[in-house]
Specification:
The complex is a heterodimer of chains A (494) and B (108). Chain A has 494 residues and is an alpha/beta fold. Chain A is built from 16 helices and 23 strands. In chain A, the strands form 4 sheets. Chain A has a 9-stranded mixed beta sheet with strand order 5-4-7-8-3-9-10-11-12, sandwiched between helices. A 9-stranded mixed beta sheet of chain A has the order 17-16-18-19-15-20-21-22-23, with helices on both faces. The N terminus of chain A is likely disordered. With 108 residues, chain B is of the alpha+beta class. Chain B has a single domain, classed as Glutaredoxin, CATH 3.40.30.10. Chain B contains 3 helices and 4 strands; from the N terminus they run αβαβββα. The chains are: A alpha/beta (494), B alpha+beta (108). Chains A and B meet through β6 and α6 of A and α2, β4 and α3 of B.
Chain lengths: 494, 108
C-alpha cells in the first residue's frame, strides 16, 4: 500500500524535527518519523546528549513526550549531568513530558537457565510509552545488553523484534551504540536499523579537537554526505552546515558610516552599505585596528551596538591603545553598546569559533561586527579552512543585515596576495592600508581597492591617526590616473 | 567465604527455619512462562518442601512491577529470601543449573 502511495505522490519521508541546533537543516527536516535512527560514535562524542536533546527538544518544542531507556546511566546521574547543560530533566519527568527508565543489566547477577526472551524490556518500554503517551523513544547504550546477556542469538532476534515493534507503534526512536573497530557499531546494529544512521566522530588534529557528524545513511531522503562540524557547549549540541546559506539575502540600499567622515566621502559620500562586509588589510602598524575601532565607536555613538571579536589583544589592551588616539571605547563598554569577545584562535577549532560567534551574534543582535584580525585564524587553520569559515560567517551576518569589518594583517608581497585572494572575494568593500614616503617620512596611506555597488574614490590618501581619532589627509600619489579620471573609474565600478 | 557458605548450606538444608521466598516474572501464557511455572513448582516440591513461597507476577497485567526488580528477560526468577537477592533468567528447564543459581544443594 505504501508502495502504491509513493508512486502517486513521490515525496520524501515525513520527518520529525529534533530540536538540535542545525541538525534539522542538515537532514532536511529532522529524523525520519516513526522510524529508528542509529547514532553511533566513540566514547565521549555526545551520543547520549544527542539522544536526550532529541527527547527534550521533542517534549518542549513539539509536544512530543519521550521515553528514555537508559542502559548505561541511572536516571539520577543523567539528570545531574544534564543539569549542567541547563536541562531540567526532573521537572520534565514531573510534568510527564519525559520518562527515564534505568535498565541495569549485570551479567554477574544473572544466571541463565533455559530459554527466555526480552519481553520484560518490551513490557517496560510499552508501559512507559503508554503512561506518558510518548511519541519519541531513546534507547541509550544498547551495547550494555550485549554485555549483560550471554545468549547473543536470542538478543539479536529480540532486538530485531524491538525495532519492528517501535516501527509498528509509530514511535520515532534514537538508538545509541558504541562505535566498533572498523565498523560502525561494535555489535553490527547497523544491520537492523537501516533507515537512518548518524555517525558522531571526535578527533584531534594539530592538538585541537573537532567534532564531526556524518549522515551515513538516510533512506528515502536526499542528504549531504559531508561531514558536518558540531560542537558541544553550555547549550548542548550545535551542528554547523558546512555549505553556506543560499545566496538569497536581500540587499539593502541603506548606508552606514565608516566612522571617519573623510572615508565616507571616499565611499560615494555615504559610507558602506548596511549588511555588507568590509575587509581592511595592511602590513603591521598601518592602522587597521584604528579604522576598525573608529567604525565600531561610531556605531555605538549612533546608539547602535557592536560586537568586537578580538583574536589578538585583550579588550583592556584595545581600549588603552585606542584611548591614546582619542577614541574612547570605555564609555561604550560601560553602556553595554560595545561587547568584546576576546579569545585566542588556538583555543578551539575553527568550527567552534564560528559556532560560538553565531550564537553570540544571535543573542546580542549587534548592528555591527568587527573581527580583528582574521590573520591569526589563518595561522591556525590554513587559508582553506578560514575561507570556508568566513564564507559562512559573512553569509550569516548578511542574512541578519549586520555590517561586518574584518582586519587582515599582511606581511610581504607573497603572503599578502595569497591570503587576500582567498578572502577578498567574499568582501564587498576592500580597503588597503600601506605606508608611503612623504617628505622623507613613512606615513600611513589608505586606498579603497573595491566597493561593490557604489562609486568610490580611487585616491591613495594619507591616513592620520592622531590624538583626536582617525582622519584622512591629502592625496599621496595618484595611483592610477589623474584626479579627473576618478569619476570615470567610479562609473566602471558601478 | 566459600567455606562458610558451604557450611551454611548444610545447615540451610537441615534447618526448617530457612524460608525461600521466590518471585517469578512471566508474560501471559507464553510457552516459556508456562514452562517456567511448572519447572519451578517441581524444583521446589523436590527440594524445599514446605519451606517456600512462590509469587507469580504476570507483567502483562502489572507492567509497572518490572522496574523494581530490573526485569528485562522473561521469565525471570528472583530469590528474595534467603539473602542475597539472586536472579535467574530462562524457563528453568535445566534444573541443575537452576539449583546452582538459587544456591540450593540437591537433597539427594
Amino acid at each position: 500500500m505504501n508502495q502504491s502511495k509513493r508512486k502517486i505522490a513521490p515525496r520524501s519521508l515525513p520527518k520529525v524535527p529534533t530540536g538540535i541546533d542545525g541538525l534539522d537543516e542538515v537532514t532536511g527536516g529532522g529524523l525520519p518519523r516513526s522510524r529508528t535512527t542509529l547514532v553511533c560514535g566513540g566514547a565521549g562524542c555526545g551520543k547520549t546528549l544527542f539522544g536526550m536533546e532529541f527527547l527534550v527538544g521533542g517534549s518542549l518544542q513539539y509536544h512530543e513526550p519521550g521515553v528514555c531507556i537508559a542502559l548505561d546511566e541511572g536516571a539520577d546521574k543523567l539528570a545531574d549531568n544534564f543539569r549542567s547543560l541547563g536541562f531540567d530533566l526532573r521537572a520534565l519527568v514531573k510534568r510527564k513530558k519525559l520518562l527515564v527508565d534505568h535498565v541495569s543489566v549485570e551479567r554477574s547477577e544473572i544466571e541463565e537457565t533455559g530459554e527466555y526472551d526480552l519481553d520484560g524490556l518490551f513490557i517496560r518500554l510499552a508501559h512507559a510509552v503508554r503512561s506518558i503517551k510518548a511519541k519519541r523513544v531513546l534507547l541509550d547504550g544498547i551495547d550494555s545488553l550485549f554485555a549483560g546477556l550471554r545468549n547473543e542469538a536470542v538478543l539479536r532476534a529480540e532486538l530485531r523484534r524491538l525495532f519492528r515493534w517501535l516501527d509498528d507503534e509509530n514511535l520515532t526512536a534514537v538508538v545509541t551504540a558504541e562505535r566498533g573497530n572498523g565498523t560502525l557499531t561494535r555489535h553490527g546494529l547497523e544491520e537492523y536499523i537501516a533507515d537512518c544512521v548518524i555517525l558522531l566522530d571526535h578527533r584531534v588534529t594539530g592538538q585541537i579537537s573537532t567534532r564531526r557528524l556524518r549522515l551515513v545513511k538516510y533512506r528515502g531522503t536526499s542528504h549531504g554526505t559531508d561531514e558536518y562540524p558540531y560542537m558541544i557547549d553550555n547549550d548542548g549540541i550545535s551542528v554547523l552546515p558546512i555549505t553556506s546559506l543560499a545566496l538569497t539575502h536581500k540587499a539593502t540600499n541603506a548606508r552606514i558610516s565608516a566612522g571617519i567622515p573623510a572615508l565616507d566621502e571616499m565611499l560615494g559620500g555615504k559610507g558602506f552599505f548596511r549588511g555588507s562586509s568590509v575587509l581592511v588589510s595592511g602590513t603591521a602598524g598601518t592602522g587597521k585596528s584604528s579604522i576598525a575601532t573608529a567604525f565600531a565607536s561610531a556605531a555605538c555613538a549612533r546608539g547602535e551596538s557592536c560586537l568586537y571579536v578580538a583574536f589578538e589583544e585583550s579588550p583592556g589592551q584595545i581600549i588603552r591603545n585606542m584611548h591614546s588616539v582619542g577614541i574612547d571605547l570605555e564609555q561604550w563598554v560601560q553602556n553595554r553598546s560595545l561587547q568584546f569577545y576576546a579569545v585566542r584562535p588556538t583555543s578551539t577549532g575553527l568550527e567552534e569559533h564560528l559556532a560560538s560567534l553565531q550564537k553570540l551574534i544571535k543573542r546580542l543582535a549587534p548592528s555591527v561586527v568587527v573581527v580583528d584580525p582574521i590573520t591569526s585564524v589563518v595561522s591556525v587553520s590554513g587559508i582553506y579552512g578560514v575561507k570556508s569559515m568566513l564564507t559562512r560567517l559573512v553569509d550569516f551576518l548578511k542574512v541578519q543585515r549586520i555590517t561586518s569589518m574584518f582586519t587582515n594583517l599582511t606581511f610581504g608581497k607573497g603572503t599578502e596576495e595569497r591570503t587576500e585572494e582567498g578572502v577578498s572575494s567574499l568582501m564587498d568593500t576592500w580597503i588597503v592600508l600601506q605606508t608611503a614616503p612623504k617628505n622623507g617620512l613613512h606615513v600611513r596611506g589608505i586606498h579603497v581597492v573595491k566597493s561593490r555597488g557604489m562609486p568610490h574614490s580611487r585616491e591613495f590618501r594619507e591616513l592620520i591617526v592622531g590624538d583626536n581619532g582617525v582622519d584622512l589627509g591629502e592625496v599621496l600619489t595618484h595611483r592610477r590616473a589623474a584626479a579627473s579620471d576618478n569619476r570615470r573609474a567610479a562609473a566602471v565600478q558601478r | 567465604m566459600k567455606k562458610s557458605s558451604t557450611v551454611k548450606k548444610k545447615s540451610d538444608l537441615g534447618s526448617p527455619g530457612d524460608f525461600w521466598e521466590l518471585r517469578l516474572y512471566i508474560a501471559g501464557p507464553s510457552p516459556n512462562s508456562v514452562a517456567a511455572i511448572a519447572n519451578l513448582k517441581k524444583i521446589c516440591e523436590d527440594q524445599l518442601q514446605g519451606r517456600y513461597r512462590i509469587q507469580v507476577i504476570d507483567l502483562l497485567e502489572k507492567p509497572q512491577l518490572a522496574r523494581g526488580d530490573q526485569i528485562i528477560a522473561i521469565p525471570t526468577l528472583v530469590r528474595r529470601l534467603p539473602p542475597p537477592v539472586k536472579k535467574i533468567i530462562g524457563n528453568l528447564s535445566k534444573a541443575e543449573r537452576a539449583l546452582v543459581g538459587l544456591d540450593i544443594q540437591p537433597a539427594r
